Amino acid sequence: MGLNFEGSYQINAPREKVWDFISDPNKIGKCLPDLKTLEVGADNKFTAIARVGMGFMKGEFKFQLAVVEQNPPSHARLKGTGTGVGSSVNMDTSIDLAEEGGGTKLTYKADVQIGGPLASVGQRVIGGATEKTVMDVFSCVKKHLETQSP
Questions:
Q1: Boundaries of every domain in the chain
Q2: Nearest-angstrom CA–CA distance, 65 and 45
């Protein structure tokens, strides 16, 4: 099952500050719901274990992630794969930052492929839950950046 997500957020912080936050796995990791562990490796690669799913299909997933494109402080692309509860997730995400209105416009696009029992839950259910999670992550980023002292 394939899902596509895209959107944008206005963050009242300079682009470099936003870039520093979202490009640091340890900082952005604080905004990832149900993150259990995060190991940062070499060459912009990292491993994360998170609790993912909904209802009876919830369980731990292990994700292998890598930053595959980077143009600081304006663009990053992340690819990753995850496995857990007999299911798999492949994702390709891009984030672009643009200076706008004294702050930063963060635009994201994600293509996600889900296989296994988790895919049987249905696109509408998974899509809605994923959209909420994405909103929670970027709301957290916005809160961290707008409440930090300069």
A1: 2-147
A2: 6
Residue 11 Cα distances to 78, 104, 132, 141, angstroms: 21, 5, 18, 9
Q: Chain-centre distance of CA 141, in angstroms?
A: 11
Report the distance separating Cα 7 and Cα 4, nearest Å. Answer: 10
State the distance between the two ends of the chain, measured CA to CA, in whole angstroms: 43
Q: Yes or no: is domain 2-147 CATH 1.10.10.10? A: no
pTM of structure: 0.89
**76-103 burial by CB neighbour count: b if 16+ within 10 A, else e?**
bbbbbebebbebbbebebbbebeeeeeb
pLDDT one-digit tens code per residue, 85-116: 888 999 999 999 999 999 999 999 999 998 88
Region of residue 118 (left: phi > 0; alpha: psi -120 to 50; beta: else):
alpha
What the block records as the tokens of 54 is 């909904």
pLDDT tens digits along 15-29: 999 999 999 999 999
Report d(CA 105, CA 39) in Å as an integer: 29
